[in-house]
Amino acid sequence: xxxxxxxxxxxxxxxxxxxxxxxxxxxxxxxxxxxxxxxxxxxxxxxxxxxxxxxxxxxxxxxxxxxxxxxxxxxxxxxxxxxxxxxxxxxxxxxxxxx
Length: 99
Fold this sequence. Notes:
Helix content: 25-40%
Oligomer: single chain
Strand content: 25-35%
Number of domains: 1
Shape: globular
Distance between the termini: 27 Å
Structural class: alpha+beta
CATH architecture: 2-Layer Sandwich
Number of strands: 5
CATH topology: YaeB-like fold
Strand order of the largest sheet: 1-5-4-3-2
CATH class: Alpha Beta
């Protein structure tokens, strides 16, 4: 059974920025491929949230690799999946804040 998904403001900002970057520097095929991959992985997360590894046991945060440059960080709270970040892995990991 799928769970409800809530996107944090940081995750929404990350997503918009990654789309802007792809639209500015790549073609529509790449943009569509990225959108399809995000959609597919979010659906997987909502169906089986525990399939991806924990990266923070205390906060119950998990990560799902989208591409070699993007990772989704999320957690499950009750029957809701909180998408915390879509982090660009080329950044300094010290910049990773879950919000």
